[in-house]
Design goal:
single chain, 222 residues, alpha+beta, 8-stranded mixed beta sheet, 6 helices
Length: 222
Amino acid sequence: MRLLSVNLGRRTHVPYSDHPEGVTGIDKRPTDAAVRVSAPGPKGIGASGLAGDDVCNTRHHGGNDQAVYAMAREDLDDWERELGRTLSNGSFGENFTTVGIDVSGALVGERWRVGSELVLEVTSGRIPCRTFQGHLGEERWVKRFTQKGAPGAYLRVIEPGEVRAGDSVEILHRPDHEVTVAFLFRAVTTRRDLLPQLLAAGEALHPEELEQARAYVAKRGG
């Protein structure tokens, strides 16, 4: 299990951005340099956890609970076959492209050590948006990505550190529940009846999804 590439994005003006100024940092490219990763601050204030990586719409992206976005190279390869086109590392706007890890099958609260210093914790899956669809240039992309159900994972920073392409990834901890990123993604998109089951992951959940699950349960009387 290793980090195939570390990908950084620069602020770019595009017509499809969901930012009011029409800018986005979704076009991420691999770098050979070492990159410092740390907690960026709360959502709405903090942006990316990676130094040198731009997140423009901090209302919907970035912050401590979405500090890093990881995607498995195996999932990109699967999309390459389906779409009939090449997808380079970073094509989905991911910061980390991994190999040998079932990223969407990771448990919420699972902890990874990347390289010798960085420790991350899985929080949630990526919800597709208009900017993502515009970036890929694929018709009905939001629906297709949702139906596939392999969203990749957002992670929060537990211990900061430097990483670079080729670093090993070690699973340090797997929590005692069955809430995977893929299951969570299904619950918050197409199967809201599954929301109560997310509560098994507790405070490890992204706060917004924990709130969704609690509100769903409360509305239905527990």
